[in-house]
Design goal:
The protein is mainly alpha-helical. The protein contains 14 helices and 2 strands, in the order αααααααααααββααα. A two-stranded antiparallel ribbon has the order 1-2. A hairpin with a 4-residue loop joins β1 and β2. It is globular and about 70 Å long. The protein starts with 9 loop residues before the first helix and ends with a helix. Bound molecules: Phenylacetyl coenzyme A (FAQ). Phenylacetyl coenzyme A binds next to α3, α7 and α10.
Length: about 325
Amino acid sequence: MYTSPTMTTPAASAQAGTNIAPIEPPEKMQAFDRVIDADGRIEPQDWMPQAYRKTLVRQISQHAHSEIVGMLPEGNWISRAPSLKRKAILLAKVQDEAGHGLYLYSAAETLGVSRDSMLDALHTGRAKYSSIFNYPTLTWADVGVIGWLVDGAAIMNQTPLCRCSYGPYARAMIRVCKEESFHQRQGYESLLVMMKEGTQAQQDMVQDAVNRWWWKCLAMFGPPDSESPNSEQGMRWGIKRISNDDLRQRFVDATIPQAAVLGVSVPDEDLKWNEERGHYDFGPIDWDEFWATVNGNGPCNKERLATRVQAWRDGQWVRDAAMASAQKKREKEQAA
Ligand code: FAQ
């Protein structure tokens, strides 16, 4: 369903809209492969095969969209946070997510794709964003659980991206991961307060939120490796460093001991420590539900997209004013 936004470099335009693999110059291809094999970095000015460029535009723009749409479930609680302290933390977190979106759109722009075309792909439903943001935040505990589990999953997935072969993406991820780490801790701390000092009703609210988000977080890592069409090539190119299934397993292994400290359980009867594997075994994920959500039919897809489109329309006057101001400044400079 994902369609590449309009490419603006001549090389990229040549590939846009066609599924026929371009014939790349062999000597350039060999030089590129040598950099990748040596675990080196590709920078925007370097030659790169069209398929590598296209994969990066796909992944980085989807990632940027996820950050921007990801502001909405928690943003829903800014006006209802239970204290000034929690409100200030939540405001800072949601603003950070906007910042992450902006670094990522900028990183994608270095590949010759325009921000307007990426946003158009999002607004017209042609671009994917993370499945996880299509579920509602029903109670205040959902905000803590998003910090603990969703940001926890995001860190697990994104830390290896700091070593991605494409320089601008890797560098953006270093700052993003530092901020996500704060996000995860604030979520966990807020749940800890509810579980250790809260009423029975507050503790039940936390458990209910964990029950609703757990499986969605496991699905967030993407389809099983055996059904992940992009993994093999992404790993060959050093874009992805760890597979979807391995990251999912690492997340479960890291999170279950944290759940024990909190005093919550996860809704999985099959969960048990496997001594032989040295990992937790866990139950089956509902992939039909995951794909329905990815393909636009989750509980909040329509609402999320409508909110983003409205925000884009509402911001038109700001963009117009900024452009007019920049134009005026240019004219003044030229006249001087
Ligand atoms: N949702 O072959 P693969 C965050 C798609 S940021 C929707 O395995 P790939 C911060 C996939 O795109 C969260 N679609 O694909 C935050 C592909 O479709 P395509 C976002 C999904 O690229 C926290 C198809 O399925 N993080 O949480 C999902 O090798 C709290 C086949 O899949 C990133 O974007 C999904 N969950 O691996 C904000 C990280 N999973 O494009 C606010 C960067 C898979 O062929 C509050 N991205 N699909 O049409 C990645 O690491 C990878 O792109 C994966 C997917 C792992 C997401």
